[in-house]
Amino acid sequence: MVHRIILLISGLILCANSLPIKPDPRPSSDQIKIDAIVDLSYETKEDDMERAVPLPVDSEPSMDDIDSAPEKPPPIPKLNKAEKWALIRAYGKDPTTRRRRKHDRIQALKRGKRVNVKRDLAAPWRITHTASRNKPQSPSVPDKPAMALPIDECPRQFDAVTRGINGRIYMFARDKVYQVWHEDGLPQKASYLISDLFTGGPRTVTAALTNSRSGVTILISGRTAYRFRWNKKHKRFQFAKNTPQEMPRNVTITPQTAFEWYDGNQVVMSGAHFFIYDAYWNVPTFTGHTRRYFPSLPADIIGITYNGGTTLLMYTKSNTIKVYNTKRYKVVQEYPINIGAYAGCLTELPKPKDEKPKNRQKTPKG
């Protein structure tokens, strides 16, 4: 009986081996990839060119996509403390002189040292405080606000624009500056002489910027830089330290535009070239080409009126505000500006041309 069962099992095995093997209807993952490639090669015929074929996730972008996508600019190099001090010393200046005496006294008191801040009573005749003869004396700030000018004249375009640390926008045109701000939710506008609102400042301004860290507004006239601080009490700007200063000789360009970039760098630009400017030490810390570090920047930019990190509002000479996206590196929107409504002045009407007198025929006498 057992022998018969063994023979039956062996017979079934031989029959199973003799039958044809049916393939698995479910293809493998490798087969799916191969079939997709083959099908894609057959579907790219002239009759089926209009059929959309999705690109793989890990595929490289086409040349058209590369050309349309803006190239990320290289970051502007930053100097550490040692490099910055070495650069300042290379210009013949001592970087340690910027330390404030009050800060030194506080540090000395923390260390337990006694600081003699009073005058020596044993020698009252000794002169302890003298004015430096080398440094020019800064003009005194008037104890009243600047006198506003009438609004009967309106410029055709502005020379420079900046936003002060007080949140007000200052637009410079020839020898005047137009101030725009909001008070109690209402827009306020006024115009002044530059030398009146900026005490001791230049007559005209070619470029202007505001350092958001120090709160100093820098006006550039030609190759001379002026540093100002806002006097909240008198509603005027007054001279800051180390001002005015002529730009170094190695700065071969004449500044035409200045602004603070979203990363905090103070940029002074002239056409295709720019340099990062330290106005306190009067030292350029970096120079480069405009297109490489500032792609798609408007060629006629005269200043930045708002710096929101990823969004910059740029004012141009053509009286337009362009919205620049710092992540996409291009202008995304543009708005035309009416100077009369924006600066609070009356539009200047063109003067009528003088008509030439008609030639009168002389009547002969007699």
TrEMBL record:
The keyword rRNA processing does not apply. The keyword Signal applies. Keywords: Signal. InterPro entries: Hemopexin-like_dom_sf (IPR036375), Hemopexin-like_repeat (IPR018487). Transmembrane segments: none annotated. Residues 55-78 are annotated as: Disordered. SMART domains: HX. Residues 1-18 form the signal peptide. This is Uncharacterized protein. SUPFAM superfamilies: Hemopexin-like domain (SSF50923). It comes from Diploscapter pachys.
